[in-house]
Automatic annotation (TrEMBL):
The chain crosses the membrane at residues 34-57, 77-100, 112-131. This is Uncharacterized protein. Keywords: Membrane, Transmembrane, Transmembrane helix.
Length: 133
Protein backbone atom coordinates (compact mmCIF):
# COMPACT_ATOMS: atom_id res chain seq x y z
CA UNK A 1 0.00 0.00 0.00
CA UNK A 2 1.46 3.35 -1.00
CA UNK A 3 1.50 6.40 1.22
CA UNK A 4 -1.24 7.97 -0.88
CA UNK A 5 -3.48 4.92 -0.52
CA UNK A 6 -2.85 4.79 3.24
CA UNK A 7 -3.72 8.46 3.59
CA UNK A 8 -6.89 7.98 1.56
CA UNK A 9 -7.84 4.96 3.68
CA UNK A 10 -7.32 6.92 6.94
CA UNK A 11 -9.39 9.82 5.57
CA UNK A 12 -12.23 7.51 4.57
CA UNK A 13 -12.09 5.80 7.97
CA UNK A 14 -12.18 9.18 9.73
CA UNK A 15 -15.23 10.26 7.69
CA UNK A 16 -16.96 6.96 8.45
CA UNK A 17 -16.31 7.34 12.21
CA UNK A 18 -17.51 10.95 12.10
CA UNK A 19 -20.71 9.89 10.31
CA UNK A 20 -21.36 7.13 12.89
CA UNK A 21 -20.81 9.55 15.78
CA UNK A 22 -23.11 12.12 14.17
CA UNK A 23 -25.78 9.46 13.71
CA UNK A 24 -25.51 8.32 17.34
CA UNK A 25 -25.85 11.91 18.62
CA UNK A 26 -28.82 12.53 16.31
CA UNK A 27 -30.50 9.31 17.46
CA UNK A 28 -29.99 10.23 21.11
CA UNK A 29 -31.27 13.78 20.76
CA UNK A 30 -34.45 12.58 19.08
CA UNK A 31 -35.05 9.63 21.42
CA UNK A 32 -37.86 10.35 23.92
CA UNK A 33 -36.49 7.69 26.29
CA UNK A 34 -33.05 9.29 26.36
CA UNK A 35 -34.50 12.79 26.72
CA UNK A 36 -36.72 11.67 29.62
CA UNK A 37 -33.78 10.13 31.46
CA UNK A 38 -31.59 13.17 30.79
CA UNK A 39 -34.29 15.51 32.11
CA UNK A 40 -34.48 13.44 35.30
CA UNK A 41 -30.72 13.52 35.78
CA UNK A 42 -30.60 17.28 35.14
CA UNK A 43 -33.54 17.81 37.52
CA UNK A 44 -31.67 16.03 40.29
CA UNK A 45 -28.44 17.91 39.65
CA UNK A 46 -30.00 21.36 39.41
CA UNK A 47 -32.12 20.78 42.54
CA UNK A 48 -29.12 19.74 44.62
CA UNK A 49 -27.08 22.55 43.07
CA UNK A 50 -29.71 25.12 44.06
CA UNK A 51 -29.78 23.99 47.67
CA UNK A 52 -25.97 23.84 47.96
CA UNK A 53 -25.46 27.21 46.24
CA UNK A 54 -28.12 28.96 48.30
CA UNK A 55 -26.74 27.53 51.56
CA UNK A 56 -23.20 28.51 50.58
CA UNK A 57 -24.20 32.07 49.68
CA UNK A 58 -26.18 32.57 52.87
CA UNK A 59 -23.37 31.06 54.94
CA UNK A 60 -20.62 33.19 53.42
CA UNK A 61 -22.44 36.47 52.79
CA UNK A 62 -25.19 36.30 55.38
CA UNK A 63 -28.69 37.65 55.14
CA UNK A 64 -27.46 40.80 53.41
CA UNK A 65 -27.12 38.71 50.22
CA UNK A 66 -30.93 38.55 50.11
CA UNK A 67 -31.08 42.34 49.89
CA UNK A 68 -28.01 43.20 47.79
CA UNK A 69 -28.40 40.19 45.47
CA UNK A 70 -24.83 39.66 44.25
CA UNK A 71 -24.30 37.68 41.03
CA UNK A 72 -24.09 34.26 42.77
CA UNK A 73 -27.43 34.98 44.47
CA UNK A 74 -28.99 36.03 41.16
CA UNK A 75 -27.84 32.74 39.66
CA UNK A 76 -29.22 30.80 42.62
CA UNK A 77 -32.56 32.59 42.39
CA UNK A 78 -32.82 31.71 38.68
CA UNK A 79 -32.45 27.97 39.35
CA UNK A 80 -35.95 27.35 40.78
CA UNK A 81 -37.45 28.22 37.40
CA UNK A 82 -35.09 25.74 35.77
CA UNK A 83 -36.15 23.15 38.38
CA UNK A 84 -39.83 23.75 37.55
CA UNK A 85 -39.25 23.38 33.80
CA UNK A 86 -37.17 20.22 34.27
CA UNK A 87 -39.88 18.83 36.56
CA UNK A 88 -42.49 19.34 33.85
CA UNK A 89 -40.27 17.73 31.20
CA UNK A 90 -39.45 14.83 33.52
CA UNK A 91 -43.15 14.32 34.29
CA UNK A 92 -44.00 14.18 30.59
CA UNK A 93 -41.10 11.80 30.01
CA UNK A 94 -42.25 9.57 32.85
CA UNK A 95 -45.77 9.36 31.45
CA UNK A 96 -44.34 8.48 28.04
CA UNK A 97 -42.05 5.89 29.61
CA UNK A 98 -45.00 4.14 31.25
CA UNK A 99 -47.14 4.47 28.12
CA UNK A 100 -44.49 3.14 25.72
CA UNK A 101 -42.61 0.89 28.21
CA UNK A 102 -39.23 2.44 27.45
CA UNK A 103 -37.37 0.77 30.30
CA UNK A 104 -37.72 -2.04 32.78
CA UNK A 105 -40.29 -1.77 35.57
CA UNK A 106 -37.53 -0.92 38.03
CA UNK A 107 -36.24 1.93 35.86
CA UNK A 108 -39.75 3.31 35.32
CA UNK A 109 -40.39 3.22 39.08
CA UNK A 110 -37.12 5.07 39.65
CA UNK A 111 -38.07 7.70 37.06
CA UNK A 112 -41.48 8.02 38.72
CA UNK A 113 -39.81 8.59 42.09
CA UNK A 114 -37.57 11.28 40.57
CA UNK A 115 -40.68 12.94 39.11
CA UNK A 116 -42.60 12.82 42.41
CA UNK A 117 -39.61 14.27 44.27
CA UNK A 118 -39.30 17.00 41.62
CA UNK A 119 -42.98 17.85 41.95
CA UNK A 120 -42.65 17.99 45.72
CA UNK A 121 -39.55 20.17 45.55
CA UNK A 122 -41.21 22.50 43.04
CA UNK A 123 -44.22 22.78 45.35
CA UNK A 124 -41.91 23.68 48.26
CA UNK A 125 -40.12 26.26 46.10
CA UNK A 126 -43.47 27.81 45.13
CA UNK A 127 -44.67 27.79 48.75
CA UNK A 128 -41.47 29.53 49.91
CA UNK A 129 -41.84 32.18 47.20
CA UNK A 130 -39.01 31.10 44.94
CA UNK A 131 -41.50 30.40 42.14
CA UNK A 132 -44.42 32.58 41.07
CA UNK A 133 -47.79 30.97 41.74
Amino acid sequence: MTDEQATRHRTEQHHSEHWRLTQVVKDRLTSPAWLARTAGVCLSGVSVGFVVLLAFILETRGDIALITRPLPMQIALALPTVVAVLTAVTAVGTVLAWWNRYWSLRARLHQTLVTVLGLGFSWILATLGFLPL
